[in-house]
Amino acid sequence: MPRSTVDVSHALATVLNGTRVVSTAINLPGPVTAHRLAALGAEVIKVEPPTGDPLASMAPIWYDELRQGQQVVRLDLKSDEGRASLHEFLADARVLITSIRPSALDRVGLGDLDERHPHLLHVEIVGDTTEPDDAGHDLTYEALAGLVEPPQLPQVPLADLLGAEQAITATLGGLLGGLTGPLRVGLGDAVRGVNASVRSGLTGPGSLLGGATWRYDLYATADGWVALAALEPHFIPRTLTMLGLDVEPADRSPVEDAFAARTTQEWMRAAKELDVPLAPVQQPSSR
């Protein structure tokens, strides 16, 4: 009897039903975290400053995606009225997400949140847990982790996104364990945890996954680019057959010449037929 495929998003959509989450976190890691928790069924109240979340002007499409299904309110947390409104929201909440330096939280008069709301699980997203008051952003944390190749800037904000994943895990783990109080997550910690591929020599210029073998690389076609990832031994003969080569090449030249002779779609049809791990290189959306 064939097994049915489970739609994970649908299956988990009610996991956090009845759980109220208040997030004062703006920019990227906090909104990504809140978005995922809302997708799991949580009731999310997104608190923004009077001027709104900066992400709305930097990436309006992504901002709109991340706030779907949430109640968005604007409060001036530097004012007595704004703080009073926040405390009202927190009275019935189970989770609070913040992404502000501890010293800044103190300066706006919210340094006593954990004492005032002992029922809350407070997920604090900071730059780095070792020095949470130091200034920084995704680029600085990626640079410190050795994930930046100058002069190119990162194409994906890994520290922000991995930090969000850790915040999601901390939230779910904290709720599962019945925890209250602060749980601190650091963006710098998150990328230090994934730079093992660079430290171990698996990735990076000249490494196995960084250009050392013709079997794992990018190639220009007649009308674009393709990504070849034929690492395992059983893919080698199939790839050589697809390329029209009798033996493994001593350098890239025969492979480059072969790919350049046909269009991307022609190569994709051939790869599908021979079961070769090949993909077209898509251009980032210009929307």
From TrEMBL:
| One function term, GO molecular function aspect | transferase activity
Protein name in UniProt: Crotonobetainyl-CoA:carnitine CoA-transferase CaiB-like acyl-CoA transferase
| PANTHER family tied to this protein | ALPHA-METHYLACYL-COA RACEMASE, SUCCINYL-COA--D-CITRAMALATE COA-TRANSFERASE
Q: Name one Pfam family in it.
A: CoA_transf_3
Recorded hits in Gene3D superfamilies, A to Z, give: Crotonobetainyl-coa:carnitine coa-transferase, domain 1, formyl-coa transferase, domain 3
- Species source reads Propioniferax innocua
**InterPro entries with a match to the protein in the record:** CoA-transferase_III (IPR050509), CoA-Trfase_fam_III (IPR003673), CoA-Trfase_III_dom3_sf (IPR044855), CoA-Trfase_III_dom_1_sf (IPR023606)
Give the SUPFAM superfamilies listed for this entry: CoA-transferase family III (CaiB/BaiF) (SSF89796)
Keywords in alphabetical order: Transferase
